[in-house]
């Protein structure tokens, strides 16, 4: 499901114009980005948390030049689903998941 599909689905279920939903969704994404850039996690009860994960410094390799490259310590954004969300996905019948995978393959 793409962002446009999410917007369409919400518009159909709520009767709110697609443009308004898109604006709200974009504002949500922007606020999540800003909060994470400032180092503040975002918690959405029943859905999950947008958090920062620390990656330790390490030595990588530039394959083309065959030299070692020092990769400094850094943070990456991550999503941690809520227990209710994980349980809902676990309780989903496998036929639905397999059908959605087939739909994705048929879209291409």
Describe this structure in words.
The protein has about 110 residues and is α+β, with helices and mostly antiparallel strands. It has helices at about 5-15, 20-35, 85-90, 95-105; strands spanning about 40-45, 50-55, 60, 65-70, 75-80. It has a domain at about 1-40. It contains four helices and five strands, in the order ααβββββαα. A three-stranded antiparallel beta sheet has the order 1-2-5. A two-stranded antiparallel ribbon has the order 3-4. Helix 1 crosses helix 2 (about 20-35). The mean pLDDT is about 90.
Reported for the largest beta sheet, the result is: 3 strands, antiparallel
Q: H/E order of the elements?
A: HHEEEEEHH
Q: In angstroms, what separates the terminal alpha carbons?
A: 13 Å
The strand order across the widest sheet is: 1-2-5
Overall average residue pLDDT: 90
Individual helix count:
4
Number of strands: 5
Helical/strand content category: alpha+beta
Poorly predicted sequence stretches spanning 5 or more consecutive residues: none
Large-scale geometry: extended
Rg of Cα set: 19 Å
Helix content class? 40-55%
Beta-strand share of residues: 25-35%
Question: How is this structure best summarized?
Answer:
The protein is α+β, with helices and mostly antiparallel strands.
Secondary structure layout plus pairing:
Layout: H1 3-14, H2 18-37, E1 42-44, E2 48-55, E3 58-62, E4 67-71, E5 74-81, H3 83-90, H4 94-107
Antiparallel strand pairs: 1-2, 2-5, 3-4
Helix pairs in contact: 1-2
Q: What are the main properties of this structure?
A:
alpha+beta, extended, three-stranded antiparallel β-sheet, two-stranded antiparallel sheet
């Amino acid at each position: 499901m793409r962002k446009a599909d999410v917007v369409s689905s919400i518009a159909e279920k709520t009767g709110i114009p697609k443009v308004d939903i898109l604006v709200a969704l974009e504002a949500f994404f922007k606020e999540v980005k800003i909060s994470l850039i400032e180092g503040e996690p975002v918690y959405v009860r029943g859905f999950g948390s947008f958090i920062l994960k620390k990656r330790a410094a390490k030595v990588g390799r530039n394959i083309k030049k065959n030299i070692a490259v020092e990769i400094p310590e850094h943070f990456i954004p991550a999503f941690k689903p809520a227990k209710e969300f994980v349980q809902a996905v676990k309780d989903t019948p496998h036929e639905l998941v397999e059908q959605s995978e087939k739909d994705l393959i048929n879209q291409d």
